[in-house]
Amino acid sequence: MSEVANYPLLRDSIAQIPVTTLVKRVGSTPFYAYDAETIRERLRQLKRCGTVRYAQKACSTIAILQLVRSQGVKIDAVSAAEIQRALCAGYEPEDIAYTADIFDADALKLVTGSASGCIINVGSPDMIRQLGECLGAQARGRELTIRVNPGFGHGHSQKTNTGGDLSKHGVWHSEVGACLSLAQQYGMTITGLHMHIGSGTDFDHLKTVCDAMTKVALEVGPQIKSISCGGGLPVPYHTNEEYIDLDAFGAIWRKTIQSLESAFGHALEFELEPGRYVVAESGYLLTQIRAIKKQNTNIFYLVDAGFTHLVRPMAYGSYHPISIAYNPENKRNDEYQEQDVVVGGPLCESGDVFTQGEGGVVEKRRLPVAQVGDYLILECAGAYGASMGSNYNSKYYAPELLLDNGDVKLIRRKQSFEHLIANEIF
Which residues pair with 410 in a beta bridge? Predict the structure, then answer.
């Protein structure tokens, strides 16, 4: 039987460290806490399938990048600053892939200058042209990879669909030949293919992706050295959901790679580019219940974290497990009970609700009866949590902790008002 997830409704610790200890370490809520061992375990699992390149957009805090690097994992960047983050974490340019659909001025300057050893994974023909024109004679001999849009997509939301003719991502599959010719004009060579669709546990769909990759690879020919399946590996956000069978996933891709190796007469490197799978389950957003109120028959737990700290529920109705940690300073008069509640944040915005579905439909969640001052924990929040934070309503970014074998390390300080307005001129 496949392994299934189990998320408690009530907890008193994270990574064997009491919640109250974590709160004292930061001094206030909200804040993020990451379990380092969960990240290591996910990377060990992924390495069974091929070369792992972490998609840092999921969580780009430099201490997390250092942890990932210590496990022998390469890195993906989607902006100039993400390249610089990887360099700060100790990565060499050769281990960094820049994947994008455009070059902005900062990125083009960086990949043709101090970080010229980066792998360039182009998502549009214009990127090839701009790189060639910028490098001039130095373009000759440069190797590129192409992110291919196979003409179809997959995803739980239209906002996360990365393929098809309504997706902005990747070079349209019928334009690959034109990109080969364009690269040749500048003396560059396409040596790798990337196809990120995110089939997850839909292995029938994954076989369709593999067929599409095979077709494009055979068109490009034996100059291909590497194949990347991108990311999109799912994690279970609901109790009793099954984890993806990585061995079955790897076997499907291995068959594709072996077929291409036979056709080309040489070995190919197979890369995975996971982000969510590496960090999602490691991350917890700890927040405090500051008010409990009734709106007609509905009970609201109002907390001090908002979508400025975790935007996924507001953006596309994403579900996160929620647990309660009792504050020992509160007196307990009743036995353990549960009730249906709505969980909302402090922002002056109707969409600032953590218990909602796609389209903004407010939902109730069965949670332990709590009091003002108790802690509420949004779980599986390590991916696209802190990295998508904002200063809307002039709220501060959340501090971050790394929990590692009993140690509690502060890896991002609480933002100050001075930092919030540092770039403003008045």
Answer: 401
**360: alpha, beta or left? (left if phi > 0; alpha if psi -120 to 50):** left
Q: Where are the alpha helices (DSSP H) in 353-393?
A: none
* Selected residue with higher pLDDT from 239 and 333: 239
Q: Cβ distance 290 to 304 under 8 Å?
A: yes
C-alpha dist (Å) from residue 284 to 21, 73, 387: 15, 23, 13
Task: Give the separation between CA 94 and CA 90, rounded to whole angstroms.
Answer: 12
Amino acid at 258: Q
Per DSSP (E only), the strands in 43-112 are: 51-55, 74-77, 96-100
From residue 382, give the alpha-carbon distance in Å to each of 122, 195, 265, 286, 426. Answer: 28, 24, 41, 12, 36
Q: Residue 93 in 3-state DSSP?
A: helix
Yes or no: say if 118 and 142 are a contact pair by the CB < 8 Å rule: no
**Is 59 an active-site residue?**
no
DSSP-assigned beta bridge partners for residue 322: 378
Distances 100 to 12, 116, 121 between C-alpha atoms, Å: 42, 16, 7
Structure-token pair, residue 280: 């999602």
Among 49, 88, 229, 348, the active-site one is: 348
Report which DSSP code applies to 252: H
* Beta strand 143-149 pairing with 189-194: parallel
Buried b (16+ CB within 10 A) or exposed e, 23-42: bebbeebbbbbbbbebbbeb
The residues near 309 (Cβ < 8 Å, ≥ 6 apart) are: 30, 285, 287, 345, 385, 386, 389, 395, 397, 398
**pLDDT tens digit string along 238-263?**
999 999 999 999 999 999 999 999 99
DSSP 8-state symbol, 294? E
Strand partners, 269: 226
As a whole number of angstroms, the distance between CA 244 and CA 228 comes to 19
Sorted by sequence, the CB contacts under 8 Å of residue 23 that are 6+ apart come out as 29, 286, 375
Confidence category of residue 333, pLDDT binned at 50, 70, 90: confident
Taking the model in full, what pTM does it have?
Answer: 0.95
Q: In this predicted structure, what is the pLDDT of residue 138?
A: 95
